[in-house]
Amino acid sequence: MPAAALGAPTFLLLYGLLRLVDGLDGDRGPGWAWNVGHTFFLVAFVLFAVLLVGLRRLLLAAAPRQRVLTEAATALGLAGTAGFLWVILGDLFPALADAAPLPDPAMVLGPLLFQAGILTLLVQTATARLLPAWTPVLVVLGFVPIAVNLDLLPLGAALILGGLLPLQRLRDGAAG
């Protein structure tokens, strides 16, 4: 889980930077920066899924009485992650997007489900005193610039990375 906690926002940061590079010519679209950036975006969300599952495992061991909330938050986060992966794969492979477009309600709900899931798990982890209270706060602050303007994605990713840094000390389902 510690590798996913650092890797996910780092790959998100790299995607954000390549997104800016891709737009320097006034157009965003297929090309090396687009393809490499979206590949980094894909890896980021695979790692976010790993992080969600790792937080679930940690919380089930540390706070078993919150099992229902933990399971629900994990399910929401993974559903949102699946939506992101669907869109990213559609961006990388336009034929896939044409064959299986993501329904509009899922386009809106996906990011919200992901954010609600991961933030709930982070708040639970902080409440269990396994992480500092500022961890979920910094992650929320990272989501804000991304929601305002996708060109602020590198800033948002850096804030999320800062928020997830304390997860480096958590190993094998226990604080260490």
TrEMBL record:
Spans traversing the lipid bilayer: 33-56, 68-89, 109-131, 138-161
Keywords (A to Z) from UniProt: Membrane, Transmembrane, Transmembrane helix
Name used for this protein in its record: Low temperature requirement protein A
Lineage: Bacteria, Bacillati, Actinomycetota, Actinomycetes, Micromonosporales
